[in-house]
Amino acid sequence: MPLTLELKEAVATPGVGLSIPVRAAKAKLSALLELVATGQEVTITSDGRPKAVLSPVGARSPRKVFTGTLEHLKTMPAWRGGPTAEEIIRQDRDGRGW
Description:
By secondary structure, the protein is of the alpha+beta class. The chain has a domain of 52 residues: YefM-like fold (3-Layer(aba) Sandwich). A four-stranded mixed beta sheet has the order 1-2-3-4.
C-alpha cells in the first residue's frame, strides 16, 4: 500500500512542510519511519501547533561543540575591586544566622 494512502491524515503546511497530528502519528509510526527514511521530514503537531520533527538520520547539521565557560569569561570586563563573590555569599550567610 502506498505511503500516501496510509498517511491520509498528513497535510502539507506552508512553512512547516508535511505535518501530522500526534494521535495519527502514534497510529502510523511505521509508515512515518518509512517516509522519513526516504529523506522526507515530518512535523508532528498537537492542537495544531508543531511539537516535534522526525528527520532522517544525518540530515541535520552537527551540533555546535560546547567550548565551556572559558570563552565566555574572556569576554567579561576585568575585575576592578570590590567584594568577591565568595565574600558576598559569606556575608549573606552570616546575615541569616546560619
